Amino acid sequence: MGKASRAGNSDGLEHLARIGLIAFGAVHLLIAWLALQLAWGGGGKSADQSGAMQTLTESPIGRPLLWVVAVGMIALAVWQAAEVLRWRSGWSASGKTRTKALRKSGNALIKAAVYIALAVLAIRFALGSGKSSSQQQQETTAGVFGWPGGQFLVGAAGLVLIGVGVWHIRKGFNNDFLKQIDTSDASPSALRLVTRLGQVGFPGKGVALAVVGGLLCYAAITFDPSKAQGLDGAMRTILQAPFGRILLTLVAIGIAAFGAFCFVRARYPERT
To answer: What's the rounded Cα separation, in Å, for the pair 51 and 44?
Structure first.
């Protein structure tokens, strides 16, 4: 427990995690830019993580930047793994302590999985073997359909994503994100900035995640992996809705705000 706590609180890992948060924010800003291009007729790349990585690849220093993103994402994953170890002693406790430990550990595991997936994606694009996130999701969904009960697993994954999206929306409306970071040293103006970015960013990302989950559920119901189109498919689904351009623009603004929130978030430590 002591070693895990020291690992999680080490200065080196904290600095790498800050780089990771900045990289995570940059990926969201790129996704938001691609979504805006899609909304207003200039879109060419996928409005998702793979499109963001492809955009980085095409910049003059794209490949070094992708390696920075990958290292940052790995650092964030290690940081979250250290959180799991730090809360492990609470698993055998009782009452609220055990509930909090399990909730913190579960959240950390989910975040670590997301960061590892982004790190792998960045490495693939850095090595020149990257491909569309939507294509990967369709291939994964098709593979899961071949498992016993695969259709139900895909549907369950869709429901989980919808739940995560709703959780993000609720988190933004209730300002719950402020409970996770220590802003005691923040000035009033900085606290207002963090609050506004979270209030816009979490609901914007939540809507996108909920639509991705809805597409997965649709793929499960129709037993058609091509319906599982990932974040890019979610953006295009929003665009096809009534007032789609306006809705997609609002979602893009929300995702951009979440990216900016990650930049500011890198400034403040995690609240225990």
So the answer is: 9
User: If DSSP states are collapsed to H, E and C, what string results for 98-141?
Assistant: HHHHHHHHHHHHHHHHHHHHHHHHHHHHHCCCCCCHHHHHHHHH
**Can you tell me the distance from the alpha carbon of 111 to that of 199, in angstroms, rounded to the nearest whole number?**
20
**Is the same domain home to 48 and 99?**
yes
Query: Could you give the CA distance from residue 191 to residue 176 in angstroms, rounded to a whole number?
Result: 14
Question: 242 and 168: one domain?
Answer: yes
pLDDT at residue number 121? 93
> Within the chain, what is the greatest distance between any pair of CA atoms?
55
Please tell me the distance from the alpha carbon of residue 209 to that of residue 212, in angstroms, as a whole number: 5
Q: What are the pLDDT digits (tens) for 136-159?
A: 888 889 999 999 899 999 999 999
Please determine, for residue 76, whether its predicted confidence score (pLDDT) is greater than 80.
yes
Domain shared by 127 and 242, yes or no: no
166 and 268 both lie in a single domain: yes
Say yes or no: 122 and 155 in one domain: no
Looking at 131, 154, 169, the residue that finishes a domain is 131
The single residue listed with the structure tokens 């302590």 is: 97
Instruction: State whether 267 and 226 are in the same domain.
Output: yes
pLDDT in tens, 162-174: 999 999 999 999 9
Residue 99: φ, ψ to 5°: -60, -45
Contact yes or no for 234/191 (Cβ under 8 A): no
- Answer yes or no: are the C-beta atoms of 252 and 36 closer than 8 Å: yes
Domain count, the chain: 2
Same domain, 214 and 145: yes
Domain region containing 228: 133-272
pLDDT-based confidence at residue 12 (cuts at 50, 70, 90):
confident
Average the pLDDT over 92-116 and give the result: 85
139 and 243 in a common domain: yes
